[in-house]
Amino acid sequence: MTADLAAILGQTSLLRSVPEQDLKAAAAASRLRSYRRGQVVFTRSDPGDTVIVVVSGRVKVTVRSADGGELTLAIIGPGGLLGELGVVDGGPRSADAETLEACQLLLVPRDTIRDLCARVPSAGQALTSSIAATLRRLTEATADLVFLDLPRRVAKILLGLPQGADGVIRLRLSQEELAHQAGSTRQSVNAALRGFERRGWIDLQDRTVTVTQPDALGRFAGPETL
Amino acid sequence: MTTPQDVLAKVPLFSMLSKKELSRLAGNAHERTFPAGAVLTEQDETGVTFGVIVDGQAAVEVHGQAARTLGPGDYFGEMALIDHSYRSATITAETDLRCLLFTAWVFRPFAMDHPETAWALLEKMVQRVRDAEARQSS
Fold first, then answer.
1. Residue B99 pairs with which residues in a beta bridge?
2. Which of B34, B84, B106 sits opposite A3 (nearest CB)?
3. Which DSSP helix (H) or strand (E) runs through A18?
């Protein structure tokens, strides 16, 4: 329904300030699609002519090596966008995107977004800010990959997760996915987690990881994570 | 003219919020006016937004049968807000209709922070389940 789609677009931080008429026009050009869990959204080097709004579910953005290694660069949840980079430089997809669970994604033509950002200064500003934030985040992630050992990278990822309503940090990813984020193997990540568990900093149950002592874990991870 | 905030203040769902919270909620919404005759939701189509009516009237139809009328302070779409699934009714604006629309990613964190709002939604759901069960057995 176009009404829905315009509201969805208007509730993204990128298009929040765009006038109603423009949102309606953008909505008319957009498509809402349902995806299963584990479905490919796009592949690196695809031409990429859409910007994607995650309406529900989560999508992981990854790069893969020739021998099957995988590094997760970001996990995008509801309200988040994919494909902003292409709006700026018109280039192909810079990474792979795959759903982590069943998703509803709104696909907006890239040109539509580009035109809006060109015409509505605050949208253009929002695009720039978003890309700047991504660049900052990736700069830090790159430094961590080079300078921190694996256990510290795992600790940092855990501490970076949002707290639940009860103030507790719980991991909503498999250890395999956690390994992709940390740039390592599931076995190494598992060993690191068991180390934390032995020190009483986390609780490992079935398939969940709960951070019980974030302060202690933070002191281990390093001063800048506190 | 009534502000969105004034209208939200009268919705039982938000009756326990402070002025500041109401203002924040109103600010986070996507305000939209639909012309008379516009279809807001269509039964069995996917829908993901939750809406509160600020001004005007809308007709609700379920399986082609008129069900009820919505007016200022009434809300719709709360089911899709939770399960992102198909709309349970068709809602058409009878007059020009001014609404506040919310996506789940805006409304959900708000509901999580205000459990009394989440509980009020639950109460509404329970009422709907009872009504549906009563209709089935009659």
1. B32, B53
2. B34
3. none
E strand residue ranges, chain A? 31-35, 40-42, 50-56, 59-64, 70-76, 81-82, 96-99, 103-109, 169-170, 202-205, 208-211
What is the reported pLDDT for A226?
A: 47
The residue of A11, A31, A36, A54 whose CB has the most chain B CBs within 10 angstroms, and thus the best one to mutate to test that interface, is A11
DSSP A17: T
Cα of A165 vs its chain's centroid, Å = 21
Residue B65 C-alpha from the chain's centroid: 20
Question: CB B46 to CB A32 under 8 A?
Answer: yes
| pLDDT at residue A188 is higher than 70 | yes
A41-69: burial string, b at 16+ Cβ within 10 Å, e else: bbeeeeebebbbbbbbbbbbbbeeeeeee
> What pLDDT digit, counting tens, does each position of B62-110 carry?
888 888 899 988 888 888 777 777 788 899 999 999 999 998 888 888 8
Residue of A nearest to B110 (CA): A165
Per-domain residue ranges for chain B?
A: 4-130
Tens-place pLDDT, residues A71-118: 999 999 999 999 999 999 999 999 999 999 999 999 999 999 999 999
What's the topology of domain A149-225?
Arc Repressor Mutant, subunit A (1.10.10)
**Would you call B56 helix, strand, or coil by DSSP?**
coil
As for the ipTM of the complex, it is 0.73
How do the domains of chain A map onto residue ranges? 2-145, 149-225
Of A7, A34, A78, the CB nearest to B32: A7
**If residue B61 lies in a helix (H) or strand (E), which one and from where to where?**
strand B58-62
Domain B4-130, what architecture? Answer: Sandwich (2.60)
The CATH architecture assigned to A2-145 reads: Sandwich (2.60)
Instruction: Judge: A79–B49 Cβ closer than 8 Å, yes or no.
Output: no
Q: Kindly report the pTM of this predicted structure.
A: 0.82
Give the residue among B20, B19, B26, B11 at the shortest CA–CA distance from B117: B11
For A22-54, write each residue's pLDDT tens digit.
999 999 999 999 999 999 999 999 999 999 999
The tokens for A187 are: 């076995």
